[in-house]
Q: What sequence folds into this?
């Protein structure tokens, strides 16, 4: 069994602008991590996740390869970070939504056992539902304060 | 995110496809090594080796039934995996929020 993380966002910016934020290495570094991304199929790149001594995290290099690149509609790359996260796939699909963009995000391919899926997942879904509520209130608070935390 | 180094045993235990398959089989019912070996293209000792790793990680327990040992899944031990996946969800929620905030800032004059 594999597990997929999915999100859907409505953004007021047009697809071209969103595409630029997803594919320009300098912009990408601002909301993701330092990287050597290039928007062409087959390009191998890394995200360098910096260490965080406060939570005992020693840093990490995520190995990626561009799998799909269809500006400004679809971007997909592999994501290998070790352990249970080898050859997972991150993808973004952009659709025009009025003057803005509907962004479909997906991170798929987490290898989880059936046993885990059937017996231990209910608790997890409860946890995620709770987290989504937290996210919604975080976003509401952020937009109220004009999102000055970046 | 991805702080899987905190629970190395459980994570390395489920990293191998054969061991995930064993856990799937045991999720249906308790089984002996012989009962499981038929499901694999590998020798009985090889299956036993994988079981040993699952036992060491605490994902499986062993019970004697007469002359046979049967193995039983302990799904609660997968909690670190679940927690870690939840961390990954939080990670993406955080990153996508940053993306939204960045775009909002940039599109202002």
A:
């Amino acid at each position: 069994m594999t597990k997929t993380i999915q999100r859907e966002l409505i953004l007021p910016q047009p697809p071209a602008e969103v595409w630029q934020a997803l594919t320009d290495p300098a912009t990408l570094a601002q909301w993701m991590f330092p990287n050597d991304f290039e928007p062409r199929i087959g390009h191998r790149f890394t995200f360098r996740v910096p260490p965080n001594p406060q939570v005992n995290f020693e840093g990490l290099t995520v190995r990626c390869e561009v799998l799909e690149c269809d500006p400004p509609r679809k971007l997909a790359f592999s994501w290998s970070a070790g352990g249970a996260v080898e050859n997972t796939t991150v993808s973004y699909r952009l659709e025009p939504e009025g003057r803005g963009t509907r962004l479909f995000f997906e991170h798929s391919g987490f290898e989880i056992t059936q046993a885990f899926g059937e017996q231990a997942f209910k608790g997890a879904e409860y946890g995620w539902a709770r987290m989504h509520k937290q996210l919604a209130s975080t976003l509401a608070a952020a937009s109220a304060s004009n999102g000055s935390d970046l | 995110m991805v702080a899987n180094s905190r629970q190395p045993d459980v994570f390395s235990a489920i990293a191998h496809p054969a061991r995930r398959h064993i856990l799937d089989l045991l999720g249906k019912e308790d089984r002996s090594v012989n009962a499981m070996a038929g499901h694999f293209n590998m020798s009985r000792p090889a299956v036993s080796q994988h079981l040993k790793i699952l036992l060491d990680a605490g994902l499986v327990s062993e019970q004697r039934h007469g002359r046979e040992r049967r193995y039983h899944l302990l799904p609660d031990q997968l909690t670190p995996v679940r927690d870690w996946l939840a961390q990954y969800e939080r990670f993406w929620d955080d990153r996508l929020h940053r993306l939204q905030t960045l775009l909002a800032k940039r599109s202002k004059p």
